[in-house]
Request: fold
Amino acid sequence: MAARHKSVETKFMEEREEVLRGLRGLDRRSFLKVVAATAGAVMAKGLIAPHSFQLVTIANAAVEKGTSTNGMAGQPPFTFAYISDTHLYERTLNQRFIRGALKAVEDVNALDPQPDFVLFGGDLAQLGTAEELELGQQILGEVKAPIKMMVGEHDWFLDMGDKWQELFGPPNYSFEWKGVHVVVLMSVHEKDFWTARKMTPQQRMGTVAGLDNGIQSRFEVGDEEREWLKNDLAKVPTTTPILVFSHSPLYKYYRNWNFWTDDAEQVQAILRPYDKVTVIHGHTHQMLFNQIANISFYGMLSTAWPWPYAPQGLPALTVQMNRADPFDQFDACGNGRMNVRADGLVDKIYNLWDRNPVTVKADYLRSRGKTYRPPAPQFATY
Amino acid sequence: MATIRGSADNAASALRPKPRLKNLARRAAVFTVGFALHLGLFWPARNGLGTRTDALDSAPTRRLVANQRRNSKRCANTVRPGAGALVPVTSGGRGSPHDRYRLRMNRVRFSGRRKVCVTAARTARHEPITGANMIRGRIWIGLILIVAATGISALIASAQEPGPLADPKSQSQVGFPAELYSWVIPADNPQTPAKIALGKQLFFEDGLSGDGKVSCDQCHGPAKGFTDQLPTSMGIHGQFGQRNAPTILNALFSTTQFWDGRAATLEDQAKQPILNPIEMGVKSPQEAVAKIKAIPGYSDQFLKVFGHDVNYDDMARAIASYERTQIAFDTPFDHYMAGDQSAIGDDAKRGWSIFNGKGRCMSCHGWNPTQPLFSEFKFHNIGVSAHKSDFVPLARKALALLASGSTPLDIDKLAIQTDMSGLGRFLVTKQPHDIGSFRTMGLRNLLVTQPYFHDGSQPTLWDTLDHYNKGGVQNPYLDGGIVPLGLSESEEDDLVAFLATLTSPEYEAMAKEEYDAQFKRSRTDRPQRDTEAAMGLKGRNGPGLGGPFGDIGPDQDQMGENPALLGGD
Reply:
């Protein structure tokens, strides 16, 4: 590789670091003054501070004070960001998805303060090749915060996950974070449709990557992994907030496009005893949220392209985004952030790249849409 | 510029005074004044009026250009517009002690002029006459010449300044969007001849500035396509702002005003430069009103037009009304679209095809018969200010400042006077996706409104196309539509040929001169050209992310029959 010289972005980042160092040097009084001023501007606009240039943790902490009495009071709130569905091709074939992925990396690196970790939501590659996955690993390597990886069907079905697991480890795992139990699932197993048809790995991958075909089976977490999930949760008290990351939505939205998890009800049943469960999923590339019993669901945005909404099955609570501007590859794409509140519920910020960010509060879903309805996304600048 | 023909050669345009003739006359007048000053009063200010300004990017050159245009303005505005009477140079505040001061200041500020000074001093040493007599003699010669020059220039000016280019335009232009026009005239400020005349007078009113020397036309001069042809504009006391002056031509159709859309209407727009400390430098609306009231005639006119005495809102209404008369269509391209196949050349037709296809220009600079403006009036980061702006720290700084106050005038000051100018639309919306975004500008009469972009950073159309061709300048907020285009040299030439057909007849000669200069320069000097990046062979830096990249558009000649060659209509 040729000697690396500093890109415009790298320089920006260094300058930014400089400013941050300066900010840390501020005395407490003037720092709080800046914070209060920015927060004031945000309040005046009627928005929660949903973007990177506001000192989000502090602004949110003020908002949280009143709500932290129930649940796991005393636990610190935290923030994590996500990047999802980058669908990278080899770079000689496609530049735009690389641009999208890089833009997302820059976005999360610009967050101030930095998120506790960054979730990658699956579908790093488009056709599961080693080149694509390695390119993805290189790009995500630029993320400053720790990365939590999740697998998508586009990463898996060429070699049934060999390369992905070699690069990123096991596809399902769990960890504790500041009082929250986090579970990462591999939810895109499919029943064997390829052996009988004598498909090559490429044909298998191509089939899974397509929509509207009757050949592939529906996604499922599967018996084995549901067993694993049961065992994993066995030691977790039911008052503990649970965060589940899965690539496919853990409910049934639209079968033809595999916006679907076939054993969704069984998985939901395993999660039923817990008070506060939030599922964060990829795959659908759109603003999408839902509430089923005790479980709040948030879909993640893709950095590659937005899917249109499916013709049926859209959860009633979802506030739709407008149709994307086809000229602008970034429109209706993006990334986002979750604010995990002190009570363990999760507010989600959709950082739509060319529109105003949208905050969806847990209270909106939990009240079944009675309060805090988020505004429809707008092109602020039209 | 072989591609501009057809309508421009018709009889009507032949009857108009030729800009070249006017230019010569102005040159002569300015030269005489300069010569007189040289001889009699001061060391000379070099009056290179009409000199093409090539190296626009260096600060000394900018100052030179500024001096030139200031001198040209001195001559060009010897008659108060609308007044119809001769006002000699010496009594209109020009040639006053202030002017002398300015000349002296110019001499000091522009080191290049020192050479002239030295020459003058040397010449003086070689003259046999010495002492007070000589000086007195020179003063007399100087004064005589000044009076002569004044007479000449005033005569010329009386016929031509602000001249036909400043007149309200006819609406019977080919391509004029009559329906759109009827929508954009606000109900609370209808067009009336008296109001337009008043607005025109105010537009050229030097008295509407802190130092009594700057009027709207300093930066929006009719002879320069209602711009100043400077990278960024100069206001009172020779101070430069951060933004390039957008043209008034067709500004009435724009859905927002200013590069960042911080004003919704022309009325709102007109109020801001007057109060900006480094543009026109008036301290308050009240002071502006007082200044106008103090000039005889205005109070009566306001009474006639608005039914009451001068106020700031009505000043803005009148100016906006005048600006709404500046429509510019009737270009060879408009004739082509109206069905005249011979109105533009084959190169321009190929350019039009690239414009709609491989070049992706149409995506933002859209044209259609209802809205033939070549802009969708949205805001995009195309990487222009990424050259010099560190967006993230700047955005933080701007947010902190705007938190304590974000009135239109606060934003105006940040946009015009600080390095936060590069944040563009972000200053207005405070949304990160607007960082470095500026409004899409129309493309008509580009060859008289150079240089290009919000900071005037690109002197030629080729440089501008090179910027787009390489996919802009990478930055975290680059618009999703900005990608490497893979345009070849000949495709860029065709695009420029097409853009040249967007010249209205009154600017034809000027545009041809500019085209020739830009063409010549483009053959040797292409600082923005980056063929590798344009062809996708070079990409983002980062571990393993060097090129080549895919996704370049197909060659134009692979597209089969060129749709543009099928003709308009």
Observations:
- The longest strand of chain B covers residues 379-380.
- The beta strands of chain B are 379-380, 438-439.
